[in-house]
Amino acid sequence: MNFSSARQHFYQEIQQPDESINLARAALYIAQEEYPDLEPEEYLNSLDTMATELEERLPSSRYPLRIIQNINQYLYDELGFTGNKIDYYDPRNSFFNDVIERRTGIPITLGLVYIEVAKRLNFPMVGIGMPGHFLIRPDVADIEIFVDAFNGGEVMFPQDCQERLSQIYQQAVILKPEFLAVVSKRHFLARMLTNLKYIYLKQQDLEKTLAVVERILLLFPGVSLELRDRGLLYYQLGYFTQAVEDLQSYLTKVPDAEDADVIRQLLSKLGKK
Fold it and tell me: Which domain of life, per UniProt (predicted)?
């Protein structure tokens, strides 16, 4: 595989068992493709420093809500981390180095800052892939409290999550158990990349969109929709041989897809090139 240095490091990181993946490192390797001179250790050291400063302020009675309260005060009140509600789709909100430097991000990247600081305090937290709004929660059995890292570390309970979903979708939403399920580290990274994918698509930056889709496929090889999207990007960028390969693979996997006829027409057109 002829990968860039950043892509090689990302690939090596995600080859480990899911529980062994270092989320912060992997996120920084994603950013390193945008910032080739980025030094991951610099940002990992920043997280270490945050945790060290916070450790000194923690109370002796380390109940989950007390720890969350202290983390919130430190990250949001003292350091000024905030959700970017003005320019949500700024790609810098999805690059972990930018989020640490600018102290501004979106739910998943601010959640990652929170998770990484909490991990260093021996207070493990996990990602919750709620549709439309990523949350985190303490990795403690039988505890149903969630943290909204985008909104100042707001503590939420399942009823709050249902209300938030209804606000997002502007209609009553039934809260299904899977909406509050823990996401694997690979899915965490894929969701970060998917955010970037749609930002670049909106900007019509096809080369960067392709680079993102390639990394999603490193996480989850053979996912049909990503194969299709990579094939279409190859086509738009003039890489016709690669386009044919991906689009044929897509049809093999989902021959009855809603867009199968459109893809077959495109393949027929490509056959004449």
Answer: Bacteria
CB under 8 Å to 240, separation ≥6 — which residues? Answer: 234, 270, 273
CATH code of the region 5-180: 3.10.620
Is-contact 230 210, C-beta < 8 A?
A: yes
User: Band of the pLDDT at 1, cuts 50, 70, 90?
Assistant: very low
Q: What is the DSSP string of 82-133?
A: EE--SSTT-GGGG-HHHHHHHTEE-HHHHHHHHHHHHHHTT--EEEE--TTS
State the span(s) of the chain assigned CATH 3.10.620: 5-180
Helix (H) or strand (E) holding 237, with range, is helix 224-237
* Bridge partner residues of 156 (DSSP): 146
Q: Using CA atoms, how far apart are residues 175 and 177, in angstroms rounded to an integer?
A: 7
How far apart, in whole angstroms, are the C-alpha atoms of residue 73 and residue 233? 44
pTM tops 0.90: yes
Q: What is the dihedral of CA 88, 90, 95, 100, to 10 degrees?
A: -70
156-189 per-position pLDDT tens digit:
999 999 999 999 999 988 889 899 999 999 999 9
Task: Determine phi and psi for 36, rounding to 5 degrees.
Answer: -60, -25
